[in-house]
Amino acid sequence: MIESVSANYDVAIIGAGPVGSFCALAHARKGARVALLEANPKASRRLAGEWLHPPAVRMLRDLGIHLDASPHSSPGTGFVVFPEDRSEPIELPYPGETTGMACEHATLVSKLHNALEDCTEVDRYESARVRAVENGRVTFSMDGDQKSLAIDRLIGADGRASVVRKSLGLPTERMTCSRMIGVVLEGVELPYEGYGHVIIGGPGPILMFRLGTDKVRIIVDVPLDHWTPRDRVSMLSESYANLLPESICESFSTALRDGVFQAAGNELLPRATYGNSRRVLIGDAAGHYHPLTAVGITLGFSDALDIAETQDFRKFTAKRLDSVRAPERLAFGLYEVFADHRPESVAVRQATYRRWRKSSKIRKHTMNLLACENVSIIRLGLTFFSIMARAIASCYPRSFKSKEWRRTRDVTGALVSRVGHFLGGFQSLKATDSATGKKPERVWNRLSRSLLVSVKSDDIKPQAANALHDAEPDGREALQSAIEQLLSLQHEDGSWEGEMLWCPMLTAQYVLLSFVLNQPLEPRRRRLVLKQFERTQLEGGTWGLHEHSHPYLFVTTLVYVAARLLDVEKDDPLIAQAGHFLRTEDVTAIPSWGKFWLAILNLYDWKGLNAVLPELWILPHRIPLHPSNWYCHTRLIYMAMSVVYSSQFQVPVTRVIEELRDELYPDKFDSIKFRSSKNRIRSEEVFSPPTARLRICYALGRVYQLFHSKRLRNKCVSELVERVRWEMNSSDHTSISPVSGFLNILALWLQDPDDIDCQKALVRIEGWIWEDERDGTRITGARSASWDTGFALQALANTPKAGGVPDALDRATKFLVSQQIRESFDGFSSAYRNDPKGGWCFAGIWHGWPVTDCTAEAILGVLATRPNAIDPEAIREATEFMLRG
Asked: Which CATH number fits domain 505-683+690-779: 3.40.1190.10, 1.10.3210.10, 3.40.50.300, 1.50.10.20?
């Protein structure tokens, strides 16, 4: 049975934190009778706002609350920023004689509650958990009884998980932008006493300030991608401790190791509405921001004061939405600038530092805006665009090197794009219906393109407001099931390896290579290859780069030709629709790689390709065009292609080739002017159009091809064949991947069909094949045993060591340690490679291509589980390899 509260109140406030309590006192000062409902009296112990800007301090004093005398508070005269380059810190004092205050959250709440005890106009209902909110009535439980309260105005000061907000049908979703760790240290000194210290240079910024006479608060911002289940304490110590002053560093690390810290999520919700005249939202219930700028309490107090003093709700809403525009944008933008490490953000950050150092006026404007003393959006805009202009100007190089100008273009373009989306996102927010507060999807979508750290992407849905408050489920059963599943996937040699999914392009090239080399697939392999083509076919009968892809002429043509070479008839259901697609498209517009394979198969003319010149390899290395300056896969594909191109090899014209010519070219093969198709590429398959410089290089290459020296060509080809052979031998005859490996085989086969390295490589193709009855035969572009095993070890490191876990860890560690390359191999320097000694490959030691991130994950996996299994010398070699990378 629900008991009605007989007392009459002018207003009921849900939430007795700082903002709710302040709101109750502000209403009481106006003579209003107030009911204050507090769900959890212990909530004040959580990690929450503790820095008050000068306006918040003044508002408290106006209500007779003085924090100065508290042993758990300290005056705040401003902030000092420590740049990431360890240059001179930048002091940003509050203008004039104004001061802020740092006060323990629990002390602040206690002070407000003490003031409420002396206020007869306020009745405080402790442990009153709201169950239902309707117009004119709120129902709550207290001491096991259900009570209801009739009220004309209900104010929700109940924070991020506001039940009042939910009762209005407003979005209760927030975007989690990062996590924070809070530590309180005793007996330590700050470099700049009285200031809040903002330290840049870690994964996220650090905020540090004094709390009373003998305590210092440290708040560490941890980006979501660093919030891993791995040894979190070690991560925090390694990533943040060294940025702190020496006098604090050790105490901070000790507190982390001892578990003396608090954690909380940093969430974002722009203010778009304050509810309606009968159910009003204030403080975090209306909107909340990253705590770095400490505007939360100040804006919350202002909300509370204005609703107490303004009778007209529309005027209140208009005033508040206008007042929060500048602080809100500053809160979003400043955190992004301090937390993001992308070049465009670094440019803005450095420009901000320079402006602060140079201009006392800019320092004053910044602090007035930060403290909410000046809420002018015009002033914020002028300061903002002044810094943006200088950031862009600082990007322009002082030389004519094309690399520097490309960087300028990229940084400036990214900066302009992000600023545009930032302004557009808030403009969309401004257009939001303030009565409903329903934010259009484009607000988050546009902000996600600007605030790349705060709002990860529009694929990351905002977190439900009550998610953090729901009872956590018991995950032990799920954990045990996950462990058992992971152990079941371990291989006999101790490794884990999952399939790297690829598109059917490589499987088609495997068929084409087998046809060229006159090595037909055995019946079962043929059947399973066709099964793979069937499984990867898109709706409409074509093929693309992945299962959600649009049709690609490149992939569809190669698969169609491969199927026909496997004796599939053109009207077979597997390829009939693809054949129609090819007839409606222009196959001469297939991208260059497709032209290359078709030319080998005598289904295209070599005259229709831009020259793939082996002579590029004899150019001086300092010229960007030299292949040594290219991405390794691009370089190696080009190397083998240039050998094959130089031969102009084509298979003989057979019946099936004649038929394919007719099927691919309805206008007859002999009538096609292939020479004019060199630069023709289907528009849907162009990601970045060839630049003018590239087209000029192509033109020069065509001229050179007409008049090249055969003697020089033969010499270059001979040298490249030896390079191909070296790549084969240094990778256990697999090549870096089958993408270039198939071409390497063809390059050697053209020199000698019985070449021993060619024959070994043909056998090693099996190492790239995954095969089963369900999905058929597929060629993967990479193997991943070392990579997957490293992550599996790290995952199991924090699980209960029961069942088969210890044995699995022993076997996996033994495998992973055995995969380190402990000796260099001859020739790596002349192959434009780093010394491989000490590294781990993505696949395994046999691959011969170690990578820095694979090495890091392997080391982390071993150290997390069996650190004694690897000797210090191996760790040193791995470290040196990563540093060389």
From this structure: 1.50.10.20
Query: Which residues are tagged catalytic?
Result: 853
Residue 848 zone, left/alpha/beta (φ > 0; ψ -120 to 50; rest): left
φ, ψ at 29 (rounded to 5°) = -60, -30
Pairing outcome for strands 173-186 and 463-464: antiparallel
DSSP β-ladder status, 776-779 and 769-772: antiparallel
C-alpha closest to that of 443 among 255, 610, 269: 269
Burial of 439 (0-12, 13-18, 19+ CB in 10 A): buried
**Counting beta carbons within 10 angstroms of the beta carbon of residue 630, is it exposed (0 to 12), middle (13 to 18) or buried (19 or more)?**
middle
In angstroms, the CA 442 to CA 465 distance is 20
Q: How many residues are given for the chain?
A: 885
pTM listed for this prediction: 0.55
Indicate the angle between helix axes 505-516 and 553-565, nearest 10 degrees: 40
Mean pLDDT of 147-175: 85
Unique residue bearing structure tokens 């303030």: 434
- The string of DSSP codes covering 201-245 is SSSS-EEEEE-SSSEEEEEEEEEGGG--SS-HHHHHHHHHGGGS-
Buried b (16+ CB within 10 A) or exposed e, 127-144: ebebeebeeeebebebee
Which residue type is seen at 183?
V
Q: What does the pLDDT read at residue 697?
A: 93
Domain boundary assignment for the chain: 505-683+690-779, 785-884
d(CA 267, CA 350): 26
221-225, 465-469, 834-838 — which is least confidently predicted? 465-469
Residue 469 reports pLDDT greater than 60: no
- Measure CA of the first residue to CA of the last residue in the chain; give whole Å: 71
DSSP 826: T
